[in-house]
Amino acid sequence: MQILDGKIVSQAVKDDLKQQTLDLKAKAGKTPHLAAILVGTDGASETYVASKIKSCEEIGFKSSLQRFQSDIDESTLVEAIEALNRDADVDGILVQLPLPKHFNEEKIINLIAPEKDVDGFHPISLGKLVQGLPTFISATPYGIMLLLKHYNIDTVGKHAVVIGRSNIVGRPMSILLSQNTNPGNCTVTLCHSKTQNLKDICLQADIIVAALGKVSFLTADMVKENAVVIDVGITRVADSSKKSGFALKGDVDFENVAPKCSYITPVPGGVGLMTIAALLMNTFNACVKK
Ligand code: NAP
Question: Is pTM beyond 0.90 here?
C-alpha cells in the first residue's frame, strides 16, 4: 500500500507556481491576486481561508480578505462581489462556503464573474467542464486529478465509483474521471444517498472517491483488494487529546481499509492540501489569461 501524499504533491505544485509567478512578474509585470470573502466566524471556514491566504503569501501571490458579520444583509455581500468583479487588480474571487443560512448560496456564486471564478463553482465553469472545454475546474476534484497524475495512477478503462453527487465535489469528479484524458477514461458510477446496493457497487470498483461527509463510512468489507481509495471527507470530531479540541476525520475507515489498497489518501494530509494547490493554479491561470 502506498500513501498518496498531498503534502508532497501540493508542495511540488506550489514550488512550481512560485517560480512561474516570479517569471510572470519579470516578463509581464503581473502578480496573481486572490480575493477572499468570509462571512461569519465558523471555525472550519476560518481555518480554510487562513490556509489559502498563507499559501498565497508563500508563493508570492497577492491576497486580500474581506470579513463580514454573519448577520449582514444580502445587498452588502452582493456589493462586495460586484466591486471585486470590477477591480482590475483582482484575478480570482473566493467566497468561502458554507454561507450563513439566510443566504442563497447559488445566487451568490452566480454573481462571481466567470473569468474570476477560481473555485470553479459558477454554472458557466461547470457547464464548460461537462463539455470538456477549458475552464476553471472545481478545486477539490482538480486537486485529486493532480494527485492521480503525480503518482501516475493507471485509470484507463478502470471502474471508478464516486460516492456523493454535490456540484462542488462528487459530480465534477465523476465527469473528470469519465473524460477522454489522462488521468481519466474511467467507467464511472456516481452514487448518492438513494443508491441501492452501495456495498456491491464499491466492491466492483478499481478506484473509489468517498465524498459524502460521513466519518469512516467506507469500511474494509466495501473495498476490493488493490483498489485506489481517495478520501475527500473532512469532519471535525471532538478530541480532548488535541490542543484544538478536535481531530479531522475522513469518510474512510483508514486503519482497516488501507491494508487492502494499492494507494490511499490520508486525512489530514491528502485531498485538503491538493484543493488549495488547485485553487492557486486556477488563480495563476486567471491572471495569465487576463
Ligand atoms: P454535500 O454537499 O453534503 O454532499 C454529500 C453527498 O453525499 C450528497 O450527494 C449525498 O447524497 C451523499 N450521501 C450522503 N449520505 C450518503 C450515504 N449514506 N450513501 C451514499 N451517499 C451519501 O457534501 P460535499 O460538499 O460534497 O462534501 C463532502 C465531504 O467532503 C464533506 O466531509 C466535506 O467537508 C468534504 N470536503 C472536503 C474538501 C477538501 O478539500 N478535502 C472540499 C470540499 C468538501 P444526496 O445527494 O442523495 O443527498
Answer: yes
How do residues 207-248 score in pLDDT, each as one tens digit? 999 999 999 999 999 999 999 999 999 999 999 999 999 999
Catalytic residues: 52, 96, 119
Q: How far is the CA of 85 from the centre of ligand 1 (A)?
A: 29
**pLDDT at residue 290 above 90?**
no
Q: Which of 200, 234, 273 to mutate to test the pocket of ligand 1 (most atoms within 8 A of CB)?
A: 234
Question: From atom 35 of ligand 1, which residue's Cα is the shortest distance away?
Answer: 233
User: Does the structure show a pLDDT above 90 at 8?
Assistant: yes
| pLDDT digit string, tens, across residues 165-210 | 999 999 999 999 999 999 999 999 999 999 999 999 999 999 999 9
- Distances from the Cα of 228 to the Cα of 35, 99, 209, angstroms: 35, 33, 9
Q: Residue whose CA is closest, atom 5 of ligand 1?
A: 212
| Rounded (10°) CA dihedral 154, 157, 161, 162 | 70
Ligand 1 binding site (Cβ under 6 Å of any ligand atom)? 140, 163-166, 168-170, 191-195, 198, 211-214, 232-235, 271-272, 275
Instruction: Tell me how far the alpha carbon of residue 216 lies from the centroid of ligand 1, in angstroms.
Output: 13
Domains of the chain: 29-114 (3.40.50.10860), 139-272 (3.40.50.720)
pLDDT at 39 exceeding the cut of 90: yes
